[in-house]
Specification:
The chain is α+β, with helices and mostly antiparallel strands. It contains ten helices and twelve strands. The strands form two sheets. It has a seven-stranded mixed sheet with strand order 7-9-6-10-8-11-12. α4 crosses α5 and α5 packs across α8. The longest helix is centred in the N-terminal third of the chain and has 18 residues. The two termini are 28 Å apart. The model has no long low-confidence stretch (mean pLDDT 95). The structure holds adenosine-5'-diphosphate and magnesium ion (MG).
């Protein structure tokens, strides 16, 4: 008997999605990328995405403030719009609330949503409210817009492309470990927890990168680099090489990892929820892109590897030597208690 833990989250999606991705009207992209794409006319397409957060699976209610949870529920969806280079338009919230939930708590949750909507010029236009028997369930949907010729997809990476990310990774995973293990909160560990509880969607960066024709493929890093590069590899029929020592780490993650004897490099490769952008670009364009990006955002890009023609094969190296990973990126059905 095949079980969910045999198939895994992505195996399950692949299994049921086959019947829904064929025979779609021309131009519509369904399951498989960060957002669905619905072209409206020659100048505009809609991007649509939805993400769910469930108490005890995605968050522990006494380890995150209601304000941060409101912001995070929206931010993880805005990140999928950013991943394709889009501009957020509106958000919709379906929420299942246990009767125990305090009104004051809910007021703060909605304030978090409101403030992030204001910050990102996103309208809040609807949803659904219902009672949940035990746990809080939050589902947000975001609609964005983009010029149809500017959309960045997971499926268009080319062998020889350089793989880049636009921020350090692993902070969110480190923050989660602090929360789960009840480690003391000092200046550095609090920073990691904040990065976990209040991630930033890279909307401006995504929009800027979408204008760059030389970028072939893009995704947001939601499940970890190791997992998300697999999404690009599968969609684009390519392979990849990643040099683990080129993955940028924050000073805070390094300090906290040393203190608790964690492997910061492994965390940076396999933990999720950092929500920065990962994209691929031909080698001959990388220098100009890097220069222009630094000028625009005053922060560097990080070259962490290369797309190869070795379909489906991910090679991780440390200082050029191939290594074997014990841990892998996040999958809801394959691991127990990994996200929380
Ligand atoms: P992301 O991490 O960017 O939110 P995922 O990797 O979780 O995206 O999902 C991969 C693709 O599968 C996306 O196109 C998403 O819309 C689709 N998908 C995931 N779950 C479902 C579902 N239950 N029904 C339909 N499509 C789904
Ligand atoms: Mg995504």
């Amino acid at each position: 008997m095949v079980t969910l833990s045999d198939l895994g989250e992505f195996g399950l999606i692949k299994r049921f999605s086959r019947q829904f991705i064929k025979d779609l009207p021309e131009g519509i992209t369904g399951i498989g990328d960060d957002c669905a794409i619905i072209p409206l006319n020659e100048k505009e397409a809609l991007l649509i995405t939805t993400d769910m957060l469930i108490e005890d699976s995605h968050f522990l209610i006494d380890k995150i403030s209601p304000y941060d949870l409101g912001q995070k529920s929206l931010a993880v969806n805005l990140s999928d719009i950013a991943a394709m280079g889009g501009n957020p338009h509106s958000a919709y919230l379906a929420i299942g609330i246990p009767v125990r939930q305090e009104i004051k708590w809910l007021d703060k949750f909605f304030l978090g949503i409101k403030d992030l909507c204001s910050k990102t010029n996103t309208y809040f236009l609807g949803g659904d409210t219902t009672k949940s028997p035990v746990r809080l369930v939050i589902n947000v949907c975001v609609i964005g817009t983009i010029h149809p010729t500017k959309i960045k997809r997971r499926s268009t990476a080319m062998p020889g492309d350089i793989i880049c990310i636009n921020d350090s990774v692993g902070d969110s995973g480190g923050g989660l470990k602090i929360l789960i293990d009840n480690k003391p909160l000092d200046k550095h560990s609090s920073y990691l927890v904040q990065r976990h509880n209040c991630p930033r969607a890279h909307i401006e960066e995504g929009k800027w990168l979408a204008q760059r024709e030389e970028i072939n493929a893009m995704i947001d890093v939601s499940d970890g680099i190791e997992s998300d590069i697999h999404r690009i590899m599968e969609s684009s029929d390519v392979g990849a090489e990643i040099e683990i020592n080129k993955i940028p780490l924050s000073e805070q993650l390094i300090i906290v990892s040393e203190k608790h004897d964690w492997n910061a490099r492994e965390i940076s490769l396999t933990s999720g929820e950092d929500y920065c952008l990962m994209f691929t670009v031909p080698e001959n364009h990388i220098n100009t892109l890097e220069k222009d990006y630094v000028q625009e955002f005053k922060r560097p890009l990080h070259k962490i590897g290369k797309i190869t023609g070795n379909q489906g094969k991910l090679m991780i190296t440390r200082d050029g030597k191939v290594i074997d990973l014990k841990k892998h990126g996040f999958d809801h059905f394959k691991q127990k208690n990994e996200k929380i």
